[in-house]
Design brief:
Layout: H1 11-22, H2 31-43, H3 46-51, E1 68-73, H4 82-90, E2 94-99, H5 106-109, H6 111-126
Parallel strand pairs: 1-2
Length: 129
């Protein structure tokens, strides 16, 4: 269990979660970011944070028929490195960016790169379908 109930998730615990598993560089953790995530957590299904129980679906990645863009932080403490290989083996039409000195949240730690790559991917890779 990550958190036994959402009632026990407060801003201090959210900060600890960010520091432990979501970012490599804690300078990216702002009061505004914590407040935004607290709002999102209030809307989430309680079961998500209680169990973080995600079934193994790597073998089904091959069913995807659309281009896939993946950002992977090499310092991600939330996802095992084996996830990189699962994506590479099972996912067709995939573009992956491995980012050093980056945790689970590439979109926060490398915002400009993330936005630029997403726009390029949507304009060139997805638009060609």
């Amino acid at each position: 269990e990550i958190y036994p109930s959402q009632d026990s998730l407060n801003e201090q615990k959210m900060l600890e979660l960010f520091e432990f598993g979501l970012v490599y560089d804690p300078r990216h953790i702002t009061d505004e970011l914590i407040a935004q995530r607290m709002q999102v957590m209030a809307l989430m299904n309680t079961q998500v944070m209680v169990s973080m129980d995600i079934p193994p679906l790597a073998e089904r990645l091959g069913e995807l028929r659309c281009p896939v863009l993946v950002f992977w932080g090499t310092n991600d403490a939330m996802m095992p490195d084996s996830g990189i290989l699962a994506l590479a083996k099972h996912c067709h039409h995939m573009k992956m960016l491995l980012l050093s000195e980056c945790g689970h949240w590439a979109m926060v730690e490398h915002q400009a790169l993330f936005n630029r790559e997403c726009l390029q991917f949507l304009r060139h890779d997805v638009a060609g379908l």
